[in-house]
Amino acid sequence: MKAKNILIRYGISTLGLILVALGVGISIKSNLGIAPPSCPPTILNLKWTGMTIGTFTWMMHLFFILLQVVILRKDFKLRYLMQIPAAFVFGYMCDASIWLFDAIASPSTNYVVQILLSLAAVVLTAIGIKLEVLGDGWILAGDMTTAVLSNVTKTSFGTVKIIFDVTLVVLTAAFAWICFGNLTGNGVTVVIREGTLILAILTGICMKITDPWMDKIFGPLVPKHE
Fold first, then answer.
1. Which structural domain, as residue segments, surrounds residue 74?
2. Domain presence at residue 146
3. pLDDT band per the 50, 70, 90 thresholds, residue 172
4. 140 to 29, 81, 99, 107, 176: CA distances (angstroms)
5. What is the 8-class DSSP label of residue 135?
6. How far apart are CA 206 and CA 163, in angstroms?
7. Is residue 110 part of a domain?
8. What tens digit of pLDDT does each residue of 52-96 get?
9. Which of 51, 47, 50 minimizes the C-alpha distance to 172?
10. 196 lies in a domain?
11. Residue 226 — pLDDT band, cuts 50, 70, 90?
12. Does 226 reside within a domain?
């Protein structure tokens, strides 16, 4: 029974990762800017095209895990190592999502469609994050690092999340300017624009609407901790 409970939890968490990865793919397809956590891997991919966005994503997550080890030291718990397989799973899910949407259509140039795609990415990301938390299986390193920094600095998670996301966007913009002379991307693919702001602000607001529905639909399926 315990093995079945674990499978259910990780199944729901994996569904959450898939939806977040689809959100990444749609936001890239919108060509209006992507969510802050995906900005660094995307700009790095534009510079070094031989490596995929998913590869840069799991590499970034491994860096976050090392940062946690440095900060927590002996307080770094063994269960936190589950972030490592989560990093690989999520990274390659992002690649699969991007490949899927690349096969469907070219990046949008219609502004109304771009906005709609960004809003679709918001909804997918909001639902995906909730399912990750609800399943209580995979731990994504970005969220865990934010939680660690929040605990260490005695600052609210929300405040640290904003600072964390802004830092990722600023670093991405600086890298883009140095490599391409363009703050938003490489001049063709847009990484930072109003879509980035839409995803950063509206995802949390959307979760207030979608969370109760996810609790109602998936809550009864989640096994209680023994």
1. 2-220
2. yes
3. very high
4. 23, 10, 22, 28, 25
5. H
6. 20
7. yes
8. 999 999 999 999 999 999 999 999 988 889 899 999 999 999 999
9. 47
10. yes
11. low
12. no
Structure tokens at 4: 């079945």
H or E element, residue 110: none
The residue type of 212 is P
Query: For residue 123, how many other CB atoms are within 10 A of its CB?
Result: 18
Other CB atoms within 10 Å distance of the CB of residue 67: 14
How many distinct structural domains can be found in the chain? 1
* CA dist., res. 19 & res. 125, Å (int): 6
d(CA 151, CA 133): 18
Amino acid at 128: G
Report pLDDT digits (tens) over 132-163.
878 878 888 988 898 899 889 998 877 888 88
132 Cβ contact partners less than 8 Å away, ≥ 6 residues apart: 13, 16, 17, 20, 138, 140
* Cβ–Cβ < 8 Å for 14, 220: no
Task: Write out the two tokens for 26.
Answer: 């749609």
